[in-house]
Amino acid sequence: MGKSPAVELEVDDRVVRISNPDRVYFPARGETKLDLANYYLSVGDGIVRALRERPCMLHRFPEGVTGEKVHQKRLPHGAPPWVRTVRVHFPRYNRHADELCVTHVADVIWAVQMSTVEFHPWNSRAADTEKPDEWRIDLDPGETCTFDRVRRVALVVQEVLAELGATGFPKTSGSKGLHIYVRIKPDHGFQDVRKAALAFAHEVERRAPDDVETTWWRKDRDPSLVFVDYNQNTRDRTIASAYSVRGFPEATVSTPIRWDEVPDVDPREFTIATVPKRYAELGDLHAGIDDAVWSIEPLLEWAARDELEVPDEQ
């Protein structure tokens, strides 16, 4: 069977050509590359808000999600002139990369044309890539951990955030965990944000010791517990953004949810087949995140009180 003819999508004032539009990317239900592009168009404002002005690593699947996965930091060759980049430095290797910097939904659709399924942005922005403005709380379940336990821990996170006066914006990970994002003042470097995240993780562990642990090495963790992964705030550590599709055959989506949905949420229900309708009805549940900026100073005080330190970044 020959390749299907390319199609052109009008994305506001730009045109993006999608080659091989009928290539099946997600075999569970048969969704194609064109279905993926149309999904991202359906959540356009939300995915752009999640990625805007951030260096973004791309997870590309040229043959669909059951084929080879390519982790791409540098912008793929052949980008049109309107696609922006931001340069980031990697001290360990003394190298740099010009990464995708989304400002428009057409940038996302062009990345799909380049076989991108997942979008993994930094938690800092182009204006100062060394000063994060997003604190990420990653509830990472062990191999035998139940999702009920993840839900319980999320509600403890909500409780602690409320006491701190911080607003958390929850979402499914698109896999087995939950993420909560907090918009923060870009006043500190990655090490301080990571230290603040560690102090928060310790407080959650103190309140829910039967459900949570903060052990550094995976091999030493109890697989039945939830790891509050403060390391996701390390420089150059990225996780799938809100509205990012995940590279699984079922085409699950990392989906913003309301706090009142947490006790009953089932992440498997959020896919490229279901999220567009939800988005049309509810809009972007993270739309207010830029209006809820918080300072991490109280958490740095906790870290100093508890004499917490994190290893140097490499």
Provide a descriptive summary of the structure in words.
This protein has 314 residues and is an alpha+beta fold. It folds into two domains: 7-121 and 243-285, no CATH class; 131-236 and 292-306, Alpha-Beta Complex (DNA primase, PRIM domain). It is 25% helix and 21% strand. It contains seven helices and 14 strands. Strands 5, 6, 7, 8 and 9 form a five-stranded antiparallel beta sheet that branches. It has a five-stranded mixed beta sheet with strand order 11-12-10-14-13. The radius of gyration is 19 Å and the shape is globular. The mean pLDDT is 96. InterPro entries: LigD_pol_dom, NHEJ_LigD. This is ATP-dependent DNA ligase.
Features:
five-stranded mixed sheet; 7 helices; DNA primase, PRIM domain; five-stranded antiparallel sheet; alpha+beta; 314 residues
Count of alpha and pi helical runs? 7
The arrangement of helices and strands along the chain is: EEEEHHEEEEHEEHEEHEEHH
Number of strands: 14
Mean pLDDT: 96
Q: What is the global morphology?
A: globular
- Domains counted in the coordinates: how many? 2
- From the N-terminal CA to the C-terminal CA, the straight-line distance is 48 Å
Question: In terms of per-residue confidence, which ranges show pLDDT below 50 for 5 or more consecutive residues?
Answer: none
The amount of helix comes to 25-40%
Radius of gyration: 19 Å
GO molecular function: ligase activity
Organism: Lentzea aerocolonigenes
Pfam families: LigD_Prim-Pol
InterPro entries: LigD_pol_dom, NHEJ_LigD
